Amino acid sequence: MATRLRRWRWRFGVALLAPWWWFAAGTACAAAEAQPTAADPALEARVNALSAELRCLVCQNQSLADSHADLAIDLKNQVREQLKAGRSDRQVIDYMTDRYGDFVLYRPPVKATTLLLWVGPALLLLCGGALLWRMLGARARTSAPYFPFGATRSSAGLAELLEPTPDETPTVSERVERHGSDAIIVDAYQPSAPRNGRTAPITLD
Amino acid sequence: VKARLFAPLAGFVLLAIMLGIGLRLNPREVPSPFVGKPAPAFSLPQLHRPGEHLAPADLKGKVWVLNVWASWCVACRAEHPLLVELSRSAKVPLYGLNYKDDSRNALEWLLRFGDPYTASVSDTSGRVGIDYGVYGVPETFVIDKAGVVRLKHIGPLTPEVWARDLEPLIQRLGG
User: Fold this and answer.
1) Which of these, A58, B24, B66, B159, could form a disulfide with B141 (CB 3.0-4.6 Å)?
2) Exposure class string for A105-138: b at 16+ Cβ within 10 A, else e
3) Are the Cβ atoms of A75 and B32 closer than 8 angstroms?
4) pLDDT in tens, A129-152
5) Judging by DSSP bridges, how do beta strands B64-69 and B139-143 pair with one another?
6) A30 sits in which H/E element
7) What are the start-end ranges of the H helices in A34-169?
8) Is ipTM beyond 0.85?
């Protein structure tokens, strides 16, 4: 028994550790891959910051910085070359948009054609908010609150939903028989107008 | 009350229409900023005669088609028979931009599958490709007599695309 338990504990420990092995192996691979080639770390930081803003045309949901596509590497080299030659970020971005259009920018400029893109989310939020406001207002004006104020009344309503209306009011012993001895029996206060013509205490399970 | 009843239906129809339009769009088609602008200049060695350079300026006064291709490009194989056929009918001069390729492989490829190009130029580094906004080979440009890009097609040419987009345009341009 004891050895069996120990064996299981060991297995459990391995199972717990396994993901960490994977993780460690993964980071080791990543570390081997990402060799900073930069002789000039400041330049490399600029290259990376700028290429994170530019979309890779081949794998369109990655930035140039993330992508290992051939074209992305070429374009990143272009960025590096041009920054090295003393061009400004603006000039490099213009170089890219001249060739690939605004599509290369992850942050497209605000123009007539991109207006919907920029204000669209705010517009949707506004519409949703207005709709919610109206619905809540309408609900407050027309219908009574779904859960009334008193606990007794609310439990009465709940019980009504749960319980088919009995033809005849069950006695306490009948109720216990039906719901077991744990049944909570609530003698609910009945508002002045009796519902369904009955003025009986109501059970709540 | 009726309007309220039909609101969800109206919403659904609107959404269906929007999604339907969205399905028909091609998200990979990057709108080219070149259309209507002068073709970027280059001067590249010709594939068959590396000693001789070719520049777009040499082709002024002609309507011509620039096709970006490479021997490593699978989709280029798919469009190649069409290009060969078009070159036989000699409707429009077809120039090739051999993109990021090894010259020997490129020449062998043309030997094997036929050479539809009036001339091909070697863009070994891919710099001219970048200047033309190339991101997926094959790509095809139609350039008019004034040296202005009139159309860019991304991906393999098909007879349908040729008949629908390129041929009428080339005729209109007087090629």
Assistant:
1) B66
2) beebeeeeeeeeeeeeeeeeeeeeeeeeeeeeee
3) no
4) 999 999 998 888 776 555 544 444
5) antiparallel
6) helix A2-33
7) 41-52, 70-84, 89-100, 115-142, 151-162
8) no
Q: Measured between alpha carbons, how far is B175 from B145 in angstroms, rounded to an integer?
A: 8
Q: What pairs with residue B54 in β-bridges?
A: B44
Cross-chain residue pair B132–A99, CB shorter than 8 Å: yes
With a CB cutoff of 8 Å and minimum separation 6, the contacts of B170 are B63, B65, B91, B92, B142
- CA B90 to chain A, closest CA, distance in angstroms equals 30
B30, B132, B135 ranked by CB distance to A71: nearest: B135
User: Is the separation of the CB atoms in A65 and A48 below 8 Å?
Assistant: yes
User: pTM for this structure?
Assistant: 0.64
Look at the block and give the residue holding tokens 């492989």: B105
Chain A within 8 Å of B132 (Cβ-Cβ)? yes
Structure tokens at B26: 């091609």
pLDDT per residue as tens digits for the range A59-106: 778 888 888 888 888 899 989 999 988 899 999 999 998 888 888 888
Residue A84 CB-half CA count within 13 A: 11
Cβ pair B153, B140 in contact under 8 A? yes
User: Rounded to an integer, what distance in angstroms lies between the CA atom of residue A19 and that of residue A129?
Assistant: 44
Element (H, E) at B135: none
